[in-house]
Amino acid sequence: MGKNFSNQRVVSLSSVRQEMIEEKRREYERVVFRSSFGVYTVIDDHSLHAIEILDISEGGMQFQTPEKTSLKLNMDDVITVRFYFATDHYLSIEVKVVRSYSALENGTAVHCYGCLLDKTMSSYSAIYHFVQFITKCAEHGHKDEGHRKVYY
After folding, report:
1. Could you report the per-residue pLDDT of 69-126, keeping only the tens digit for each?
2. Weakest mean pLDDT among 62-66, 72-76, 133-137, 146-150
3. Dihedrals phi, psi of 147, to nearest 5 degrees
4. How many beta carbons lie within 10 A of that of residue 127, not counting itself?
5. Rounded CA separation 95/72 (Å)
6. 3-state DSSP call for residue 122?
7. Rounded to 5, what percent of the chain is helix, strand, coil?
8. φ and ψ at 15, to 5 degrees?
9. Which single residue of 50, 74, 76, 110 could bond 64 by disulfide (Cβ 3.0 to 4.6 Å)?
């Protein structure tokens, strides 16, 4: 006769997935962020320096610059970061540097900065929703493995 499975426990895969997502969260979940649009900081109100955002959350972000750049920031510096969504349109937010360290990324020396976002700025609402959007993209998006061709 067949085996009796009445003592076996049934596990819901959706609840296990949700538990895994919750384990990854902290006060503000950080999302790995590699942008395909421009992100710059403004120094002395006239020069833009390209930065690469590594992660971003509702409360802060981490970015890196090449070690050789002229951009040098100190702890407690407040700078403006611009998110360019088009060549001449951007959102800006002020951030305060709270962490600074050097690292090697694929054999290249970089400098990383951890920053807090200024939540009192009027642009914070747009940045907040942007972070929510990329959080959902990270949870539900798919990586293009290059198996599809695009024709224009």
Report:
1. 888 999 999 999 999 887 778 899 999 999 999 999 888 999 999 999 999 999 999 9
2. 146-150
3. -90, -5
4. 21
5. 15
6. coil
7. 20, 40, 40
8. -70, -35
9. 110
